[in-house]
Every structure is written in C-alpha cells, then in structure tokens.
C-alpha cells in the first residue's frame, strides 16, 4: 500500500468493519498512515484489478486489545463484494503470510467473525471461540513455513 491508496483502503475498511462505530474516515486514514510510517515489520497490502483497488489486508503488531496478548496479526482482510470468489482474498492472505515469514514470524494470528471456514481452508487453525463486545469471535492461528 502506498499513500495514494490510503483513502480507498480506509473507505473499504470503514464499510466492512467500522460501520456504526463512530470511527471516521480521517481516523482510519491516520491509523493507516501511521502503519505505513512504522517501519518494515507491519505491512499493508492492496489488490488491484487493472488500476482499481479491490481489496486489502494488513499485518499488525496489535489487534483487539486487550482480548489476547499475542502478536503479530493478520488483520483487516476485505475484498470488494463484486470481486469476491475470484482468489483475491487468498492472494492477500498469502502475501501477508509471505511477508511475515520474511520478518521471522513463526506463528501469525487473526480474529474473525464470519470467515472461519475460509481461513481453515487456507490452513489456519481455530484456537478459541469467545465473546467480544457481544459478538462471537474466533481466534485462529497459522504456523508459517509448514
């Protein structure tokens, strides 16, 4: 992801994850810019079809504090509805996994509300099912390089 992608990525993320939460476009843009400026460990990837941004995924140090004291996290995977089912999400997950490996990460974690079967099909294991703010969440992990 580059600076030119920040607004489009923030718009995707707001629609997918933050609708009704009060989080603003400006807040998410600021968080994404902070991630971009934070060094090589954390990462933000985008998928494009031609020049159109159709998806994004992040690797971050911290996620959903204080639910679990684990790091790092695959976070924020979202693909535009019209482009789902075409392998975009799989490619983004694999890109984050590859990045994590280059950073020396042995185990990557994620939370999901609805996509447990998708991640399981990619080799992710369910670690725990729990409730966060009244929502059923699934903590999953993947040992990399195996």
Automatic annotation (TrEMBL):
Presence of the UniProt keyword ATP-binding in the record: no
Lineage of the organism: Bacteria, Pseudomonadati, Pseudomonadota, Alphaproteobacteria, Hyphomicrobiales
Name recorded for this polypeptide: GNAT family N-acetyltransferase
Gene3D superfamilies: 3.40.630.30
InterPro entries xref list: Acyl_CoA_acyltransferase (IPR016181), Bact_Acetyltransf (IPR050832), GNAT_dom (IPR000182)
Organism: Mesorhizobium shangrilense
Domain N-acetyltransferase stretches: 1-145
UniProt KW keywords: Acyltransferase, Transferase
């Amino acid at each position: 992801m580059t600076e030119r992608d920040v607004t489009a990525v923030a718009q995707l993320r707001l629609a997918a994850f933050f609708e009704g939460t009060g989080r603003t476009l400006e807040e998410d843009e600021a968080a994404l810019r902070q991630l971009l400026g934070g060094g090589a460990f954390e990462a933000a990837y985008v998928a494009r079809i031609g020049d159109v941004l159709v998806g994004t995924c992040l690797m971050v140090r911290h996620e959903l504090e204080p639910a679990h004291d684990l790091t790092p996290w695959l976070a924020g995977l979202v693909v535009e509805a019209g482009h789902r089912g075409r392998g975009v999400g799989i490619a983004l997950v694999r890109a984050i996994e590859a990045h994590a490996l280059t950073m020396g990460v042995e185990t990557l974690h994620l939370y999901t509300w609805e996509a447990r079967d998708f991640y399981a099909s990619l080799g992710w294991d369910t670690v725990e099912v729990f409730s966060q703010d009244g929502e059923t969440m699934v903590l999953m992990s993947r040992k990399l390089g195996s």
